[in-house]
Known about the structure:
This protein has 4 helices and 13 strands. The chain has 275 residues and is an alpha+beta fold. Among the domains are: 5-27 and 82-166, Ku70, Chain: A, Domain 2 (Beta Barrel), CATH 2.40.290.10; 210-241. Strands 1-2-10-13-12-11-9 form a 7-stranded mixed β-barrel. Strands 3-4 form a two-stranded antiparallel ribbon. Strands 5-6 form a two-stranded antiparallel ribbon. It starts with a strand and ends in a 28-residue tail after the last helix.
Amino acid sequence: MRALWTGRLQFSLFDFPIKVYSATQSNDISLNMLHAPCQSKIKYEKRCPVHGPILEGEITKGYEFEAGKFVTLSEAELETLAPKAQRALEVLFFVDQPALEPLLFDTPYYMAPDGPMAREAFNNLREAMRNSGKYGIGHMVMNRKQHLVALWVKENAIVVSTLRYDSEVRDVALLDDLKAATKKNKEEIQMAADLIDKHTKKFRYKSFKDGYQEKLLALIKSKVAQLQAAAQTKEVETTATYATAVSGNGAPVKRGMEKAPPTAKKPRRKTGTDN
Length: 275
């Protein structure tokens, strides 16, 4: 597994090199857009509605502050705004687990020690965190953005999850449907509580599968097998025709003129770094 970020973990007297890896991956199968008559890939070119196709160097970034009106921002200007790329994950403090609601968690990563010299310090901090049952809160710069992060222990790794900032979480008060006052029915509340207790069980998330992706993969494999079988049949027929032509002293069919059978291509799955 390739590390996405390398740097140092800093927390009081702890300071050691670490690597950060993506903790998740997408299993979505990537499909191409094709021109149906000839099955060629569709290409999308960068065009200006006024001047037509443009070169990469003619593109800049801008913000639309009114309909059709923009202020442009150069790469140099954006670079001055980016946080200093310090290669450090700084742990600021620790909090009890209930302090962080699931809505705040964004993208998870695995942290591991970078090299033999870092293992002892990493293991000691990990076990102290495991025993405390607390979340570490810190920040790090990744992809030109400063991220607020939470840390906790999973098996032999420390999980680092980026957190959403307060401004990124919508206020429940914005939902007008929840503003109307309603009476509470004690009997129905108790009935719901009983149903919840009755249907409470251990969550075995590995037993849940993405049915659509599995069916899509099976369909693709079936179509590839049919295409390969048809190509093999055509190859046999072409070979037989060639042999008949040669044995009959007829004009031999030139080998290599027939279309080669397509090569099977495994459906490409999106990785954890795809966006």
